[in-house]
Specification:
The chain is 58% helix and 0% strand. By secondary structure, it is mainly α. The protein has one domain. Helix 1 crosses helix 3.
Amino acid sequence: MHLTNKEKIKMCLEHLDEGKLLTHICERYNYTDVSKLKYWINLYKKHGEDVFIERERRIYRRDLIFR
């Protein structure tokens, strides 16, 4: 299951602000990977919400790479 960035932020805040258990949060969002949630929480603690903002993907052309 693919989660949106808003859902990831909500999951992190539920654990940090409300003190909910990781397993309960995963069950609520129908997500099975608790270790990935721990990783997101640590990223959120270190960098804040900016980590989950989607950035524009860059496409590099071959002629720019081999100059």
